Amino acid sequence: MTTPQLATPPTYAEAFDAVQRDQAGPTPIADLRRRAFARFSTLGMPTTRLEQWRFTNVSPITAAAFTPAQPATLSAADVAPLAATGAGDAAPTVVFVNGRYQAALSSVAGLPDGVVVGSLASALTKPKSSEADTDTVTQHLGTGADIESDAAAFTALNTALFTDGALIRVPANVVVNAPIHLLFVTTPPLREAEAEPRVMTHPRVLIVAGKNSQVSVVETYSGSGDTPYLTNAVTEVVVGANAVVDHYKLVRESPAAYHIGHMHLRVDRDANFSSHAITLGGNIVRNDVQALLDGEGVTCTLNGLYIADGKQLVDNHTTILHAKPHCQSYELYKGILDGEAHAVFNGKIIVAIDAQKTDAKQTNKALLLSEDAQINTKPELEIFADDVKCTHGATVGQLDADAMFYLRTRGLGLEQARSVLIHAFASDLLNRIGIESIREELDDLLLAQLPGSGGGTFNEHG
Amino acid sequence: MLEVTNLHATIGDREILKGINLSVKAGEVHAIMGPNGSGKSTLALVLAGREEYTVTDGSVVYNGHDLLEMEPEERAREGIFLAFQYPVEIPGVNNAYLLKAALNALRKHRGESELDAIDFMAFVKERMKVLEIDQSLMNRPVNEGFSGGEKKRNEIFQMAVLEPTLAIMDETDSGLDIDALKVVSKGVNAMRSPERATVVVTHYQRLLNYIVPDFVHVLSDGRIVKSGGKELALELEDKGYGWIDGVAGQVGV
Questions:
Q1: Which residues contact B83 (CB under 8 A, 6 or more apart)?
Q2: pLDDT in tens, B195-228
Q3: How far apart are the first and last CA of chain A?
Q4: Which of B45, B77, B94, B157 to substitute to test the interface with A, most A CBs within 10 Å?
């Protein structure tokens, strides 16, 4: 199948001109943006002719015109139902509405000395910012996020057009106990006007964790209404030697939303990084993780859970590059697909020639609840070293008929039995989530999406 | 309570039950014995509502209901309980959760209030003791990693909690050591009452020393070929099935 190359709508160029005029940032960043926009203009939107986008047809995004979302403010009460549990309470929380930092909704009090959690835009604005923050950004921004590959159009577009996002910097040897919440909310117009462009945001997150530091970050992407909008997010994470970084991404976009997210990691020796990408909402959702294990002794865990219904398309692409010896990577992705939902999982593992003693394990499991749901799952192993352990496995199945019958003979109705088994399928992933409030929140969100569950908890401890 | 008349059932294009007649009254314990492949487990599964089997003829009336028209969960809520020959492992579902959900589904059906976690534990505690169910078993996933004996005890424990009107036990004794057999039998005997009935499907007479039946039926090639009192089981133990007319080509238990 081929998709015709559509001309890039002029709205991106207008947006780029506006950013260059008002928010280009320091010279290195402004230069980076120019390169990125040139790259985007060359590439155009990805088509299904590109291997990395083969099963993910973004023509609804390509065909539409998008303009930067207008500033908007929300009350704390509006934001609460969109946030992850624990956000805003005592936990440090940074809120962005339509791509802009919301000081009134954000609170980063109580962080250890030297820890920076705040707006990327203000870090780039000279008078407001400390030089150290600006330096952190100019030093790291764009070093992980690849704009050169053929598949990098969205990352290039984000790099050219981002106006805000979050900067998190944890100095060496500092432990941040409370998870840091980043909440990105989009409020598109309630009704779509003819010939009006749709709204877009390009959130950018930069996380720099110093040597021996420890931090957890929860990124939540949320939106209101039922008109389409585009979230094109890029997160770069630099994990210092022996640091421990746990990252959570919750995609709770509105049912009409397009969410394209790329995360780029660079992990130094002996560090432990984990990612949990949870997709609950959005019309087209793409989660890309590209991890560079750039020192010996790294442990990198990439987990994902996606739940899709209707005509949703959820695509998880991971690439782990084992560049150095003695690193471990573990991947577990699980999907629950109903209706005509379509999922894509592509897990690429590259083991460089001197990355001996690599231990890589990749598992993707999908539960298809309807005959029209489908998944394309593909492992890609490129192994250049000879003393490595790499395993991968994929299973696609339906609910177990024996288990269904067993539950029903115990008096559970058809819908309840289905819910119990679907929840059970997801539970080993949920149980890997280290932050209790997030785990419980996800449990509740999952229950709310399951038919006939009747609420309550599935984990009874008498 | 249960009236099975001329029951025929197939799986795929194979007929397994070829005209079963069975009448069970409240207060009675019936044992169904027979050689391998005679249809004992099929009968148990058809009564519980397994959809893979197609009933091609006959009727089953349970307490005035047309049982064959009822979904498996409706049968359960009306008091039918099947103790599985091979209890199903369900990773990710907590044993206590399932039991509480099951109990509350039945209570709701009877118009009773649902039990919360505390009342539930109080309710099951005594029964846990009788069946030697450890708290740790409650917090594990249903049947996952359970030993054979634990699985069977767990089935009878579920039965003790759900208090069925008609309990159907499908080879619950198979593979049990004598201690586990005694525990299971104690659980079953504690349930015996004038209002309840039990159908025990078994391969071995030994169980019937502990759960003494009122009637024994021999099933062969999809039909009940002989019925009698508890002494029939002893006779089968002595002589095998070969002497009974209609047991084709089967010798020994």
A1: B152, B155, B156, B158, B159, B167, B168, B169, B170, B172
A2: 999 999 998 888 999 999 999 999 999 999 999 9
A3: 55
A4: B94
- Please report the pLDDT score of residue A457 as a whole number: 43
Is pLDDT at A69 greater than 60 in this prediction?
yes
Nearest to A420 among B71, B87, B93 (CB): B93
Picking from A407, A409, A427, the nearest residue to B82 by CB comes out as A409
CA distance B76 to B49: 10
- Whether residue A456 is predicted with pLDDT greater than 80 in this model: the reply is no
pLDDT digits (tens, 9 = 90+) for B145-174: 998 889 999 999 999 999 999 999 999 988
Identify which of B76, B88, B139 has the shortest CB distance to residue A461.
Answer: B139
Beta strand ranges found along A323-461 (DSSP E): 328-337, 342-351, 359-368, 374-383, 389-397
Q: Stretch B76-93: mean pLDDT, rounded? A: 95
**Chain A CA closest to residue B163:** A410
Mean pLDDT for the stretch of residues A16-22: 92
- Per-residue pLDDT of A188-232, as tens digits, reads 888 777 777 899 999 999 999 999 999 999 999 999 888 999 999
Q: What's the CA gap between A98 and A105, in Å, rounded? A: 13
- Which residues on B lie below 8 Å from A401 (Cβ)? 52
Task: Give the C-alpha separation, A216 to A435, whole Å.
Answer: 9
B109 to chain A, closest Cα gap in Å: 9
CB contact under 8 A, B73 and A411: yes
Q: For the beta carbon of residue A270, count every other beta carbon within 10 angstroms.
A: 18
Indicate whether this complex's ipTM tops 0.90: yes
B77 to A423: CB separation less than 8 angstroms, yes or no: no
Q: What is the pLDDT of residues A399-438, one digit of tens each?
A: 999 999 999 999 999 999 999 999 999 988 998 998 888 8
- B90/A423 touch (CB, cutoff 8 Å), yes or no: no
Task: For CA atoms A151, A377, A202, A109, give the dihedral sign.
Answer: negative
Contact list, B41 vs chain A (CB under 8 Å): none
CA–CA distance, A325 with A77 (Å, rounded to integer): 49
The DSSP annotation for A101-136 comes to: EEEEEEE-TTPPTT-EEEEHHHHHSGGGS-HHHHHH
